[in-house]
Amino acid sequence: MTEIDNQLLEQFFQPAKAVKVEDNGFTERVMRKVPYNAVCLSHLWTLFCVLLGIVAFVVFVGWQPIFRGILTLLNTNIGDLHPVPIFMTAGVLISLAVVELVQKMERLQI
Amino acid sequence: MQSLSDISLVAQVAVFHNRRAFDQLVRKYQSPVRRFLLNLTLGNEALSDDLAQDTFIRAYTHITQFQGIASFQTWLFRIAYNVYYDHCRKKSNERLEIRDVNEKMTNDGAVHSSSLTSNSSLKMDIHAALATLKEEERACVTLQLIDGYPIEDIAKMTEMPVNTVKSHLRRGKEKLTTYLKNNGYDGNR
């Protein structure tokens, strides 16, 4: 294979690189064929986990530590809190918000 | 951000079986996958669309196997190649007929392609040229010269050793060069 042969092939296949196949209902056809069974099982599993969580919350009196935490927070002087974890948490939350915003913009094709 | 967005969509499909997220992935990658399969099937639009559908359904049912090491498109192409390969194996009896048709088309110097490609003689020429190659050679050449993948990625997609991919590429390119020169593409016609 010479350099000229490689150039010949590159040149020949160049138009094929730019080909964009239009959707023309292809995505809808695929989505109609995507199986639902997995979705049903997933929903049942989620429901089971939620119910298990509610039962555990009631059995182990889950609201007590929450109230205790809120009371402790209310009795704490804001100046005593360490700023580093707060900044880290804020950073993570802002990053997630930006990712979500970008996705929403992509969905709306802005 | 693009790959992050893909990973986020894949995670939504894998964890919550979010169909809207999968719809977005299909819409985004249908063109490269269908183009790849269209070239492998030498412009057979109906067959390539069927194989592309199978590719996306297999991707949906095996989405938890996507590890995010390679890009989502590379992973999809790997599935697409496997779907095409499975199809060829299943239709091994018909394959002989396809080869006969390919040979006939090569001799005639033209491929009777589908409605999608019939309006472009250049696309017909590309499919006629690809028809001179064996399936593995065609896959390797298509992935490198049209889709622009490096040899290492092609080896991963086709599950072939790197040296085998290099051999297929060398033989495929030699055949194509001969075909192009015989048909006057080097300007000596």
Explain what the structure shows.
The complex is a heterodimer of chains A (110) and B (189). Chain A has 110 residues and is mainly α. Chain A has a domain at 78-110. Helix content of chain A is 76%, strand content 0%. Chain A has helices at 3-17, 26-33, 37-59, 63-75, 83-107. Chain A is elongated, with a radius of gyration of 28 Å. The mean pLDDT of chain A is 84. Chain B has a single domain, classed as Rna Polymerase Sigma Factor, Chain: A. Chain B has helices at residues 2-16, 19-40, 45-61, 72-90, 92-108, 121-130, 135-146, 151-158, 162-182. The longest helix of chain B is centred in the N-terminal third of the chain and has 22 residues, at 19-40. Chain B is 75% helix and 0% strand.
How many helices of chain B? The count is: 9
Class of secondary structure makeup of chain A = mainly alpha
Instruction: Please count the helical segments of chain A.
Output: 5
Provide the β-strand percentage band of chain A.
under 5%
What structural class do helix, strand and pairing data of chain B support? mainly alpha
Distance between the termini of chain A: 47 Å
Query: What quaternary form is this?
Result: heterodimer
Order of helices and strands of chain A: HHHHH
Poorly predicted runs of chain A are: none
- If you average the pLDDT of chain B, what whole number results? 82
Number of strands of chain A: 0
Largest sheet, strands/sense/barrel of chain A:
none
CATH homologous superfamily (4th level) name of chain B: RNA polymerase sigma factor, region 2, helix turn helix motif
Notable features of this structure?
heterodimer, A: 110 residues, B: 189 residues, mainly alpha, Rna Polymerase Sigma Factor, Chain: A, 75% helix, 0% strand, elongated
